[in-house]
Design a protein that fits this description.
The complex is a heterodimer of chains A (about 425) and B (about 450). With about 425 residues, chain A is mainly alpha-helical. Chain A is built from 17 helices and no strands. Chain A has a domain of about 240 residues. In chain A, helix 3 packs antiparallel against helix 4 and helix 4 packs across helix 15. Chain B contains 18 helices and five strands. Classes of the chains: A mainly alpha (about 425), B mainly alpha (about 450). The interface between A and B is large, with 59 and 69 residues.
């Protein structure tokens, strides 16, 4: 039940002036305002839970200056939190100036942005998979499990089979893709053949794969020799994605970035240039029309899940090959796993490749900055997760954003997803 | 009171994709059952030495205070017991293959699962054998699994309440987290689980209200909102745990709620410890099962709810306020799951981030396995609760199959169910669809 406005592709919409866009219901405006609201929610949470701020508020009746003081303490705490988030994830202006004038300390200055890119690399890949599925009207909650299986099979290929670097890296990445494809095939085939709802199947299959992960890292084949714990073998150096600036610089950003760029180009080509992508988008926008024009819905469902799962698997193996080089029993598990963040990233990026790139960078910066915030101010990094989810709740409810900011224009669905029940 | 079933009123609403049912899938499940039976016959029955024996005891968990009398120990020859169990399984499988019954396939499958678990346990504890344990205490298995089962039942009743009114509640896990967090802090400060339950009720209700607010009023995608709410609460609880519980450990001391034995009744073997020597939340859960079933299927309000879940436009035509019914049910459903979170924390004591570990999703699975009915959901919760408990306690029995395989069981069975391998499920027709008047 999507509004007619939502199904008009962007290309057909008249391009409007920037000034005209501001204050209107342009989806980008809605996303930006949702971001503002998300940070406001985060600020309120900081104010209501940080002991120092609460103490200041408790004393507001003690003296005339107290309310002003309480406000100042609140602003200071929120400001410090968000400032460290920025300097911890993008750049510290002072350090940057120091490096610029003296030419020294570039490694330290670039570390935040390198960390953000490292975090964003697998996130872009998995989010594009989720976004392609969304564009076809399919909700792939199973991306996390698919990434896990990709990580398992990729780790097996990278650690148990030995070959020269030139073939080992592609082989490892392909193994990860294969893992994702296998786990994506299950919900895809079941949906195509029996009509099983992909949301239920993927949620359940996630847990099956988590259990399989524990089984795998405890098995004699994959467990680190001599270990009793749930830790896998380490990837051969020939299978690792090396840091771009060399291991000595300490900057972790790896050649995996190139894989992500390739995926973005592939997704752009698939969705905007290929006939398969056109069929995907038609199926997502209007399944009846797709069926009427002779598209095979079953084949499309299966293919979408193979692609989406394959990308998730690739993200899993890129994560392993570029950072830890091994997996453990809690690899990607939990609600902070990249497969779940990917859902929010794809929605914020409106399921388009470039939108997903920007929103991945943003959410990666939030995650990395959250770590810096916890280290400096003591405010737990989970605040980043809360802000991300709040942003997506607002993005998924554009009418609410419109009402809060009194935007003009007819209500439209920013999330271009045909809302369906269990029975479809 | 005779009420017409709403399902019969709307025969042709489903999209065609669901109707395309592969012929003879009852046969598939029949084959699966026969294979399980054959496996049990060969691996667990014929494979054991004919001298081995297993003991089945029924002693209560706490013998001294609990029973003036109790059932003795039943010693069984492992070989023959398992052969007979396996033959029963194969018999049921062949019956399914032969007659292809249209109803009760799922029930038969649940029965087979229980028989298989029993055969597995008998085999594991056979006495000239590898295990240190030589007996299965049926009572302790039932009592142990009843803790998980209780929490699952709260969750799946919440799901039934929401989804019968046409709102998908994937946020059960989030409501568990909210209830557990609030419950832990209130129980620690007041040492009173009654107040904690009220707190959990309110917390879960608020999550339900947010879901209803976004899904009913603003017609956002319910699945997205649900998934994001779970992510948000998991992050928020972990945040608050560090920000509040760590500096003020008094807020999370973790006192566990004791049991309340019902006099005399708790002395009955097996049934007594399982049903009449439990915490107050267990009795509340029993009341809720009856209450929700009655409210949904025997009252005028329940008819309204089901009408809204099946065909909101028709319901609106006869004067039912669709939005109001959905609001009420989703808030109530959230509140039930919130209490479930408190019930969970009343056994666990201290709150920790991630402590609910996906139980909310198993509850969702149980609701689907139980075909969106309270009674079916309860049966599914018992089955899933037992498998969760056994997966956690398998080491005790030294069973050579890995824990992880048993952990997968509830999820795999749910995948079977939604893909129609085991019986057929059908959600309320308008479940998950936003309603727009006019």
């Amino acid at each position: 039940m999507s509004d007619s406005v939502a199904t008009v592709p962007d290309a057909i919409r008249p391009r409007r002036h920037l000034l005209h866009r501001i204050g209107s219901q342009d989806p980008i405006v809605v996303a930006a305002l949702a971001l503002v609201l998300g940070f406001i929610v985060g600020a309120l949470i900081i104010i209501t839970t940080t002991p120092a701020v609460l103490d200041a508020w408790r004393g507001i009746f003690h003296s005339w200056g107290a309310p002003g003081h309480a406000l100042k303490v609140s602003f200071d705490n929120v400001g410090a939190a968000y400032r460290t988030m920025f300097t911890g994830s993008i750049v510290d202006p002072q350090g940057f100036w120091h490096s610029l004038t003296t030419g020294k300390g570039w490694d330290a200055t670039l570390t935040p942005i390198s960390e953000t890119l490292t975090y964003a690399t697998p996130l872009v890949i998995v989010s594009i998979g989720v976004g392609i599925a969304f564009q076809t009207g399919i909700f792939n909650i199973g991306a996390n499990g698919q990434a896990v299986l990709g990580g398992i099979i990729g780790t097996a290929a990278g650690s148990m089979i030995h070959m020269p670097t030139v073939v080992h890296i592609p082989f490892t990445l392909l193994a990860g893709i294969a893992g994702g494809v296998i786990s994506g095939a299950v919900p895809g085939v079941l949906k195509a053949l029996t009509g099983a709802h992909e949301v239920i199947v993927t949620i359940m299959f996630n847990y099956v794969l988590y259990a399989f992960l524990l089984f795998a890292v405890l098995s004699t084949a994959l467990q680190q020799p001599g270990q009793q714990n749930d830790i896998s073998r380490t990837l051969d150096p020939s299978a690792q994605l090396a840091p771009i600036f060399g291991a000595k610089s300490g900057l972790r950003v790896s050649w995996g970035v190139l894989v992500a760029v390739a995926v973005v180009i592939f997704a752009w080509w698939l969705l905007d240039r290929s006939s398969l992508g056109f069929e995907f988008r038609v199926t997502g926008a209007n399944p009846q029309a797709a069926r009427a024009s002779g598209m095979n819905a079953r084949v499309i469902v299966i293919v979408v899940f193979l692609i989406s799962g394959g990308l998730a698997g690739l993200a899993g193996v890129v994560q392993v090959a570029s950072t830890t080089h091994y997996i453990d029993g809690v690899f990607l598990i939990g609600n902070a796993g990249i497969g779940f963040t990917a859902i929010t990233v794809a929605l914020l990026g409106r399921n388009r490749p470039m939108g997903i790139v920007w929103s991945s960078l943003l959410f990666a910066a939030l995650g990395v900055g959250g770590r810096a915030m916890q280290a400096t101010t003591g405010i737990p990094l989970d605040l980043a997760t809360v802000i991300q989810s709040a942003v997506v709740l607002f993005v998924a409810t554009p009418v609410l954003v419109k009402e809060i900011f009194r935007l003009r224009g007819a209500p439209s669905q920013s999330v271009e997803l045909a809302t369906k029940g269990w029975n479809s | 009171m005779e009420l017409m079933s709403v399902e019969e009123l709307t025969p042709s609403l489903d999209t065609p994709s669901v109707r395309k049912v592969p012929v003879g899938r009852t046969r598939v499940i029949g084959v699966i059952i026969v294979v399980i039976g054959l496996f049990s016959l060969i691996a667990l029955g014929l494979n054991t030495s004919s001298r081995a024996h297993s003991a089945l005891t029924f002693s209560p968990v706490d013998i001294l205070t609990n029973a003036p009398w109790h059932l003795g120990t039943l010693t069984l020859l492992t070989f023959w017991t398992n052969v007979i169990l396996a033959l029963i399984m194969m018999g049921v499988g062949i019956e399914v293959l032969w007659r292809q019954p249209r109803r009760g396939v799922m029930g038969r499958f649940g029965f087979i699962s229980v028989l298989f678990l029993l055969a597995l346990l008998f085999w594991a504890v056979r006495t000239p054998g590898p295990s240190q344990v030589s007996f299965i205490d049926l009572t302790s298995i039932l009592v142990g699994s009843s803790e998980v089962t209780m929490v699952l039942i709260f969750g799946s009743l919440s799901g039934v309440m929401c989804e019968r009114a046409g709102v998908v509640n994937i946020a059960i896990e989030g409501q568990f987290i909210a209830g557990a967090f609030v419950g832990a802090s209130i129980a620690s400060t007041t040492s009173n689980y009654f107040y904690a339950a009220i707190g959990g009720l309110v917390a879960g209700g608020i999550i339900g209200w947010i879901l209803a607010f976004l899904a009913v009023r603003y017609r956002s995608d319910q699945i997205i909102v649900g998934v994001v709410l779970v992510t948000m609460l998991s992050g928020l609880s972990s945040y608050l745990n560090l920000q509040i519980f760590t500096p003020y450990p008094k807020l999370n001391t973790g006192n566990v709620l004791g049991n309340f034995a019902i006099p005399l009744l708790d002395k009955i073997p097996i049934i007594g410890p399982v049903f009449f020597n439990q915490s107050a939340f267990f009795y509340l859960m029993l009341l809720l099962i009856g209450g929700v079933s009655f409210a949904l299927f025997k009252t005028r309000y329940g008819l309204h709810v089901r009408a809204v879940g099946e065909h909101p436009h028709a319901a609106a035509t006869v004067g039912i306020n669709v939005a109001r019914v959905r609001y009420i049910n989703v808030v109530l459903g959230g509140a039930i799951a919130g209490v479930g979170g408190v019930a969970f924390i009343s056994q666990q004591g201290q709150f920790q981030p991630g402590i609910t570990s996906g139980l909310g999703y198993i509850a969702l699975a149980a609701m689907i396995f139980g075909r969106w009915r309270p009674s079916g959901a309860v049966v599914a919760c018992v089955l899933f609760g037992m498998s969760v408990y056994l997966a956690d306690n398998l080491q005790t029995y030294n069973i050579p199959i890995s824990t992880e395989i048993l952990t997968m069981f509830p999820y795999i069975i749910t995948i079977f169910v939604v893909s129609g391998l085991v019986g057929r499920v059908r959600a309320p027709a308008a479940d998950g669809l936003p309603y727009q008047a006019g």
